[in-house]
Specification:
The protein is α/β, with parallel strands linked by helices. Helix content is 42%, strand content 20%. The chain folds into 2 domains: 141 residues, Flavodoxin domain (Rossmann fold), CATH 3.40.50.360; 32 residues, no CATH class. α1 links the parallel β1 and β2.
């Protein structure tokens, strides 16, 4: 039975939710799936039974988590040897338009330079506005950013801006295109 490893880095938890949705899709396709927070598993990673890897990271202020970059560096040989993909999660990705797409692509480009890994498959998804998790200053800054982008500004609620159908399509397409199948 094929085994998929999904390693992720997250700040407020949305990237973990997306990683778990991808895992659900893979399990429905007959995969064994190991979902790991790279922050808690820096010393371990790819085992010999892994047949594919997906890495996910949240983008904040133009940067991904350093610990995830280090995890990718540590397992770059496996990421290059096996079918692998990268997904980025950010509020920027929830705003449609070529300018925002180009901005995220520049950040992914910096990630690939920093990690020395060039993923063959890349996707980006909108994140969440977790106003309830922000301190006062961050809540004001995030509200200002959301207002400028035409996003939700009522700080008494959290907002999930992820296109869950797109997440499922990404997982299905990755598994099908890479011929990482159970049969």
């Amino acid at each position: 039975m094929p085994k998929l490893l999904i390693a992720y880095g997250t700040m407020e938890g949305q990237t973990a939710k997306i990683a778990n949705r991808i895992a659900e899709v893979a399990r429905e396709k007959g995969y064994l799936v190991d979902v790991v927070d790279a922050k808690n598993r820096n010393g371990s990673g790819v085992t010999t039974d892994v047949t594919a890897i997906i890495v996910g990271a949240s983008l904040h202020a133009g940067h991904y988590e350093n610990y995830l970059v280090n995890w990718v560096k540590a397992y770059r040989a496996d990421l290059e040897r096996l079918p692998s993909a990268f997904f980025s999660v950010s509020l920027t990705s929830s705003v449609p338009g070529p300018e925002t797409q180009a901005q995220v692509e520049r950040c992914i480009g910096q990630f690939t330079r920093d990690s020395s890994w060039q993923p063959r498959t890349v996707a980006f998804f909108g994140g969440a506005l977790a106003y309830s998790q922000y301190n006062f200053v961050k809540r004001l800054i995030m509200r200002w950013i959301a207002q400028r982008a035409g996003g939700p500004t009522d700080t008494s609620h959290d907002y999930d801006l992820t296109d869950w159908a797109a997440v499922s399509r990404f997982a299905e397409d990755f598994l099908a295109a890479r011929r990482v199948r159970t049969s």
